[in-house]
Fold each of these.
Amino acid sequence: MIENFAPNLIRLRKQKELSQKELAKKLGISPQTISNIENQTAYPTFANLEKIAKFFKATPNQLFGTSSQIELENSVFETDDYVDKANLLLKAVNTFHNFSLDLEDYSTPEAYALETITKLDNLLKREPILDPETDEHLYRYIPTGILVRAEDKTEPETEYELAYGSSILEKAFDRIEEIEDLYQKAQYIVTTQDLLDKKS
């Protein structure tokens, strides 16, 4: 294994188009050390080995493996990459398929877009705040944010605006910490129950 290190280091260095001196500078070690390792007159210390591995982001195979082992590992990495890309493509196709099914329920794409926009608008819409006693709109005094009735306004109209409450989406965000807390508690209960079941 160790005999493969020198040719692998040379290969990795040349892939990055670095001279021995340039690599040594980047690693913070002497050029002579790099030369000795590549000429197989010395082996890397654990400290230098760690520096080399981190710099090249190399796997153990890429450092100590034979050419065939490295090629095999690269093939596996490429396969994993292809699988990830294929899964992403399948998700995109599935999303498009579902979108197409949704469109079938509408006479035109514009009708689908209109309903989607309407739904979003409903989530973002803020309802006026009403006086619980009179059911009339309340106004917000802009300088202080205090809510007042129409008959209680004492300043110029420009100092007031209709008061609106939070939208459905804003209310959901306002309670996000509460929801997260409930989720954590539920997770704790489930985990504890699993442990109790295993013990019994």
Amino acid sequence: MTNNTSNTELLVRQLLDRQDIQDTISRYSQGQDSHQGADSNILEQWDNTFAKNGTVDYSVAGGTKGSYRDLAKWMRGEGATSGSMSGFSNWQHMLSLPVVSLTGDTAKARTDFFATHRGKKENEFNVHYNAAGAFHDELVRTTDGWRIKFRRLEVYFGDPLQIAKIG
């Protein structure tokens, strides 16, 4: 009887961990999509998404390889006017459910995404840009819940360097 109870408790803990990881990964896109145009405060969500020392590798898209705060600056620039997203008026990032592998207080997750971006009409890059790919995350359990320690971007299709030209 005790063995069944401990197995049940372990399974419940794993399910709760997976849900917390899913929520953490979703906060990344929420941060991106909730702060469009002049509202560049993606760190409102990202500070609760990444570990304090969280790093990213977005070099496949011509982006930063460094801290998640460096990524925010690359995407939004100073005052949301010069970053890689500045050529777009709106965007939406849709995520699949992550495939999660748990090992104690660490986890790995892979989440596919589809992102659509609408260009600003007032500039020469009035484009509608779509991209698909995956986020490869390494996560760590903290006292505040699961956080992304490292994220690597993989692009399946779309010309990610087009964003750098627009922004």
Amino acid sequence: MKMRIATKQIERKLVQVAQKFQKNPSLVLPECRGSCRTCYFEKLKKDIEKLKDEKYVEKMAGKKGFVAAVAATIMLAKQKIPYVAFMKIGDENVYYAKRGKVKDEMLVGIQNWEKPNLRMLAYMDIARKKKVYLFSMPDTILCAEKVPEEFVAFLQKKFSCSAEEYILITWQGKKIPCCSEKNSLLNMKHYFYYPEFEHEIAVEAHVTTIECASQCDTCLIEDALNQKLDYQHYISGEMSDKKFLENYKKKIMWNIEKKKVLIASNRCYGNNADVFIERELQPKEWEREAVMEIIKNERKAIILEQPSAGKLLEKYGVDLQKLKEEYHESEKKTILKNLPTIRGDKLAEFIDDLARTHKVEGKEGVMKKLKGREMNVKEKAIAYAFLHTLGAKGEEWKYGKMEREFGKHLAPHVAQLLQAEGDEYGALLQKLVKEIG
């Protein structure tokens, strides 16, 4: 308990509660929903009704117990409240006027009557000692031998959430999905006294983990997905709804990580590497071999949040730029190994250079090589012959009429050259050089 100066707002609220009970102290008596042979609250009723007498209020306010807590609260209707006590309950500072010898919890419960969870604090001693079941509703307290249906419906409305992931608490046939930043089960228990609660409820975790994306004969992760879960830490209030769900998902994934399966964006392909690669990774040609090597050699699960070949390669420490350069260099050697070495005049070397560039880099490579290059008339005719053959548009303005006409004449020879290899390539190149003259 701590003390502080009472603000006008706090003082006004406490006075309003006091006036409410001064007018009708019987409001604190629970509504009976049973048929007990003896009722503790019937005995208490006489003392509560006497609180309409001001002298009796003054007499009881200095004593201990529940009636004294109500009397001490009624006394606030005519008192100044310069200071208030407060205690931390959950994340909230709860204010009350400390009076007499009454337990703080009873004063908190009576003076914060409008809050059903705090109200229960005033009744807990009675409930435990007299073994009565009490249920705190928005406007009243219910005393019942069995759990009232409307009370469970009240909890259902108050604690239910609509998220995709939740803890499902089932009690008295009612399902309550919870997904709070706090522990919903623990907070529910602040609204009632019913010792059998934890024995009657069923608790299940509903989380989005892994969906099946491949029709495997045997599911390799079935045991991980269907593992039994220990709810004891949650039931004892040690973690929030969301923390429990998070831990549950981590445990599932921790068990899946031991399996040799392929997962991307929570979609599991089992060990079907071909479908996984084509549907999720979609590697470029220069990535494919490295991707397949990783999948072949990995003995545990491959799990990607973002599906792409690049993400997989990065995860395994592959330098993408280096891999790309090595691939293109290897491809270049493979493509050009069947072409003879050309030795001759500059014109032959110029034609050979353009032809080799096309075989490795395609039309774009040829256009890039020609861009900004200074050329004589023959070279420009050859250049135009290549552009015409490759269907490159928008470059005509760079060439004169004679260069274009001669280039079109040479284009069929260039087309043959681009398809040739080995000795045929050498012969066609020399033929083209002679044609140019």
